[in-house]
Write a structure and sequence with these properties.
The protein has 504 residues and is an alpha/beta fold. It is built from 16 helices and twelve strands. The radius of gyration is 27 Å and the shape is globular. Bound molecules: pyridoxal-5'-phosphate.
Length: 504
């Protein structure tokens, strides 16, 4: 568990590889690059030290990184019920497909005649996502959910301008993900928080009261972050529309809706999706994402440029695909080229292989699994709201543990000792000590039973040996970390002491 950084393993002169002797004449690089640009050279050199590379053997490198990878937790190593994140197992075949040479060796600057397959894939993926969400048109440009939210709000803003209206506010329920108010702020709107009702959903009355001619949009997550379907969404949308606003649905929870509900038919004007949650891109660790946005007819002209266009027999025989840039009302470009392509390939592969029936089963199974956990654990951990069926995630609270002095954080940390990644905790914030469990469709009943048994065992431990829980976990490299300090005083780089001065 005590793994030094690679630099500390460095031994001067040690080599990882020994290439064969070269058989071409030696050339002095300074003949090619002006001397002042070279490291460790010349009076005027900007950089006067040698590159600080660790000198290690191949085996040391392999073992170092393999050991580091083993400290990590991932969906490939265990149950990862992180609510709101949809951490599901994704078929490895989609990784293989995304790595095919035909996809990885093309470049967006190639002539369109050479990238017809990629354009067709993106065009068809837009069509599938439009079908799944019930929206008129989709853009694949945004690179994450939050980026998609910004995209949607910028379109709303531009559309309002075209209507000659100036609306400054966005309504956001108190259960919303933090990106909703952040994106609204970035798009220049003021955020008005809406309190959820006694059953965890937004009430018609609260919308009637808040919805005036200064409101540009309501941003609603459905199902919301309590895992509950916003049952009044149709009537809510009607009120918002009557008073000239737009309904933005945060579609990060699409894993609960595929094949079951088409948001466009419920009155949603714009929705963002997270391909890295619902559609087969593994996430976590800050890897690339994709946050396509779907819109209804009124917002379609404002979609980012370029769009992908399909034509028959114009430039070539048969169908051809091209980028369309001439869209005068567009909000412009949001991302280099057309977004994160490899993620689209995975989503395309996933949707094609599941098909309509398969996608519906994904959502049904995700919902079934969450309800199974909710039913089995509701006598051990409190449910913050009435015991109604949930969608794809179940939220518990730690109120029942109060007497033991153990809280949600202790339960989460102890789960690690049981080989399980903690669920999302302390979110949504309307629930005190929230424990938000999203099992996803990919877990077996045996796995769910193991999780339930672990949670029950921890609840027993809370009564019998609370101090044990307060010090958990015991099986990891580090136990409790000071999370506040880690965020406030991050230590982002390390370098050998003798090189420090070079950077001072
Ligand atoms: C994950 C999530 C987001 C943000 O998506 P990113 O892709 O992380 O930017 C927004 N809303 C909800 C409800 C989410 O779960």
């Amino acid at each position: 568990m005590e793994e030094p950084v690679l630099f500390e393993r460095s031994v001067s002169g040690r080599r990882g590889v020994s290439p064969a002797e070269h058989d071409v004449p030696v050339t002095d690089v300074s003949a090619l690059i002006p001397e002042r640009f070279l490291r460790s050279q010349g009076e005027e050199a900007e950089t006067t030290y040698d590159p600080m590379l660790p000198e290690v053997s191949e085996l040391e490198v392999v073992r170092h990184y393999t050991r580091l990878s083993q400290w990590n937790f991932g969906v490939d190593t265990g149950f990862y019920p992180l609510g709101s994140c949809t951490m599901k197992y994704n078929p490895k075949i989609n990784e293989d497909i995304a790595r095919l040479d035909g996809f990885t060796t093309i470049h967006p600057y190639l002539d369109e005649s050479l990238t017809q397959g990629a354009l067709k894939l993106m065009y068809e993926l837009e069509g599938y996502l439009a079908e799944i969400t019930g929206m008129e048109a989709i853009t694949l440009q945004p690179s994450a959910g939050a980026h998609g939210e910004l995209c949607g709000l910028l379109m709303i803003s531009k559309c309002l301008k075209a209507r000659g209206e100036h609306r400054t506010k966005v309504l956001i329920p108190d259960t919303a993900h933090g990106t909703n108010p952040a994106s609204s702020h970035l798009a220049g709107f003021k955020v008005v928080q809406i309190e959820s009702g006694a059953d965890g959903c937004i009430t018609l009355d609260s919308i009637k009261e808040a919805m005036d001619t200064d409101v540009a949009a309501l941003m609603l997550t459905n199902p919301n972050t309590l895992g509950l379907f916003e049952h009044d969404i149709v009537e809510i949308a009607e009120i918002v529309h009557e008073r000239g606003g737009f309904v933005f649905c945060d579609g990060a929870n699409m894993n609960a809706l595929m094949g079951l509900v088409r948001l466009g038919e419920l009155g949603v004007d714009v929705v963002q999706l997270n391909l890295h949650k619902t559609f087969s891109t593994p996430h976590g660790g800050g890897g690339p994402g994709s946050g396509p946005v779907g819109v209804g007819a009124e917002l379609a002209p404002y979609l980012p440029t370029p769009r992908i266009k399909k034509e028959s027999g114009i430039k070539r025989e048969g169908e051809s695909y091209s980028f369309e840039y001439d869209r005068p009302d567009s909000i412009g470009r949001l991302k280099a080229f057309y977004g994160n392509f490899a993620i689209m390939v995975r989503a395309y592969g996933y949707i094609r292989r599941c098909g309509p029936v398969g996608l519906r089963r994904v959502s049904e199974t995700a919902i079934l699994n969450a309800n199974y956990i909710k039913q089995r654990l509701k006598s051990t951990f409190d449910l913050p709201y009435d015991d109604k069926p949930c969608m794809h995630e179940a939220v518990f609270s730690d109120t029942g543990l109060k007497e033991t002095g153990v809280n949600t954080m202790d339960v989460a940390k102890r789960l690690i000792d049981y080989g399980i990644h903690p669920p999302t905790v302390y979110f949504p914030m309307v629930v005190g000590g929230a424990i938000m469990v999203e099992p996803t469709e990919t877990e077996s009943k045996a796995e769910l039973d193991d999780f339930i048994a672990a949670m029950e065992a921890i609840a027993e431990e809370a009564k019998e040996k609370p101090e044990l829980l307060r010090n958990a976990p015991f099986t990891t490299k580090v136990s409790r970390v000071d999370e506040t300090r880690a965020a406030r005083v991050p230590k982002l780089k390390w370098m050998p002491k003798d090189h420090m001065t070079a950077f001072d």
